[in-house]
């Protein structure tokens, strides 16, 4: 199972991702922030898009759907729970929907919090998850619609995936997330190393995506409820993991 993966930068900090299977000549796109850069990335490579997967209803993930469909005819899948907010879906998905593309199964994970219907797409055989605006490199999505408890439950599903799973998220927010993280775990060696790598990549305008579940467990403050240093900083030594998550999410909102 070998896929070619192309990150397509859109607007100032969004990413769409193209996956291409050489063996079957199929191409799938995750999210549709804007049509033009996605269509150019396809035509540069002579790929024709057959499938488009949508994570959630925000404009910066769906604005390109109509034009991409019109030009490529790609079959478009998105969360059933957001069908009223996402125009032009061909198929609705929820957790457990049997979804296949290019001879592999894709697991749909419901991850409410950022929006209530947000879904992530797990390509198990390829060891890749697309997390949209649920889990970011060193961050997590703002809670526009869901509760902290819902988001914590959603993130818990993601961190239960194999540690080597590659994580593609919807935005390049990593550097500012890293600066925030350093305030709360200044002595985390993995984080110190990672921020150097991130600064180096960003100074050359390179993406910091993909990350892995393992890296996030070691450095992402929203997944670090087990860290004594973080708990100390938040004054939550004896709180539950969910309470620690809730507090760090609040701090980030007011950062
Ligand atoms: Zn969003
Ligand atoms: Fe977004």
Task: Provide an overview of this structure.
- With 255 residues, the protein is α/β, with parallel strands linked by helices.
- The protein has one domain: 4-Layer Sandwich (Metallo-beta-lactamase, Chain A), CATH 3.60.15.
- Helices cover 35% and strands 24% of the residues.
- The strands form three sheets. A six-stranded mixed beta sheet has the order 1-2-3-4-5-6, with helices on one face. It has a six-stranded mixed beta sheet with strand order 7-8-9-10-13-14. It has a two-stranded antiparallel sheet with strand order 11-12.
- A hairpin with a 4-residue loop joins strand 2 and strand 3.
- The mean pLDDT is 98.
- Bound molecules: zinc ion (ZN) and fe (iii) ion (FE).
Produce the secondary structure layout.
Layout (H helix, E strand, L loop, with lengths): L2 E8 L3 E8 L4 E5 L4 H11 L5 E3 L5 H4 L2 H8 L2 E5 L11 E3 L5 E3 L2 E7 L8 E5 L4 E5 L2 E2 L2 E2 L7 H12 L6 E4 L4 H11 L4 H15 L7 E2 H7 L8 H7 L6 H13 L2
Parallel strand pairs: 3-4, 4-5, 5-6, 10-13
Antiparallel strand pairs: 1-2, 2-3, 7-8, 8-9, 9-10, 11-12, 13-14
């Amino acid at each position: 199972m070998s896929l070619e993966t192309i990150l397509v930068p859109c607007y100032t900090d969004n990413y769409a991702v193209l996956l291409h299977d050489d063996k079957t000549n199929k191409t799938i796109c995750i999210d549709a922030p804007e049509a033009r850069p996605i269509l150019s990335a396809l035509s540069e490579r002579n790929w024709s898009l057959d499938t488009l997967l949508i994570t959630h209803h925000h404009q910066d993930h769906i604005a390109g759907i109509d034009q991409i469909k019109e030009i490529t005819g790609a079959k478009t899948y998105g969360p059933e729970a957001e069908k009223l907010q996402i125009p032009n879906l061909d198929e609705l998905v929820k957790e457990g929907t049997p979804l296949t593309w290019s001879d592999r199964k894709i697991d749909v994970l419901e991850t409410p919090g950022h929006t209530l219907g947000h879904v992530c797409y797990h390509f198990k055989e390829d060891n890749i998850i697309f997390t949209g605006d649920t889990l970011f490199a060193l961050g997590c999505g703002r809670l526009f619609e869901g509760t902290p408890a819902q988001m914590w439950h959603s993130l818990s599903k993601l961190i239960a995936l194999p540690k080597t799973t590659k994580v593609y998220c919807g935005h390049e927010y990593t550097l500012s997330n890293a600066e925030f993280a350093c305030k709360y775990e200044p002595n985390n060696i993995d984080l110190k190393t990672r921020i150097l790598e991130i600064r180096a990549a960003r100074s050359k305008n390179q993406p910091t995506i993909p990350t892995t579940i393992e890296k996030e467990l070691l450095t992402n403050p929203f997944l670090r409820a087990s860290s004594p240093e973080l708990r100390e900083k938040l004054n939550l030594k004896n709180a539950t993991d969910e309470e620690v998550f809730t507090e760090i999410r609040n701090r980030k909102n007011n950062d």
